[in-house]
């Protein structure tokens, strides 16, 4: 069991100071915003319409479920969050909220979100949400993250489920299109996260987390980023020729994948002397591009869906 589950005494200072902002921070709002956006795209891109009230409720409960995952992740990772510069300001290591309170908060929101999504939409969507929470907390956080450098490769599936959940809300099932949206996020996650790891390596070393940069070094990580980006490109571009794609999506995909491939190539060509000389400027640039990459693809899917009823934008 993680030290985070038993080391509670050191985190119980200043608990009375916890406010709404501290509990909201437990939900990992930045990650939750990506969950909401991709789930919304999955819902709106589906070929079946959803009543606005049902759609709003579904997205709300998906967001709550995503936030619950974040709270449970912070509960489990509290011990390493206290060590890493990037995370030591989070509510638990900062002494605002105890680990027990974070666990209770996360579990309550998890159960509530799954039950309410089932009532608002269907059991397929609720089942996918429940599995997503389980996957992120148990498979990724408790098992993979501290055990294998492939943690983010396999664990990335947790962040890839939201568009499938949104699609299931509308259709009650899974399709090729929803699997493609899942695969797009799944394949994007490793190069996105490894680009971050290249200039955050010391954090993971200090915390003893076996990220690829720690176990295999930055040279191997650069190669992995290039390989995964090459594998990602045909999936992203190929989606243009499905029912959720079209000329608009194709144009966006071609541009973004060309830029992402160039960025991955630039990262691969560099050595550590060059990177340290300019303080990992290229790596940080590619990491920022990776954020826009995913947003651009899903925005294009949303645009295609919005234009479809007017007979515009499709093949």
The CATH topology of the largest domain is given as Tetracycline Repressor, domain 2
CATH H-tier superfamily of the largest domain: UbiA prenyltransferase
Number of helices: 16
Helix content: over 70%
Characterize the biggest β-sheet: none
* Global shape: flat
Which oligomeric state applies?
single chain
- Mean pLDDT across all amino acids: 91
Number of domains: 2
Our estimate of the beta-strand percent is: under 5%
Task: Give the end-to-end Cα distance, rounded to a whole number of Å.
Answer: 53 Å
Structural class, judged by helices and strands? mainly alpha
Pattern of helices and strands: HHHHHHHHHHHHHHHH
At CATH level 2, the architecture of the largest domain is Orthogonal Bundle
**Runs with pLDDT <50, length 5+?**
1-16
Number of E-type strands: 0
CATH class of the largest domain: Mainly Alpha
User: C-alpha Rg, in Å?
Assistant: 20 Å
Function: Converts heme B (protoheme IX) to heme O by substitution of the vinyl group on carbon 2 of heme B porphyrin ring with a hydroxyethyl farnesyl side group.
Family: Belongs to the UbiA prenyltransferase family. Protoheme IX farnesyltransferase subfamily.
Catalytic activity: heme b + (2E,6E)-farnesyl diphosphate + H2O = Fe(II)-heme o + diphosphate
Pfam family, one: UbiA
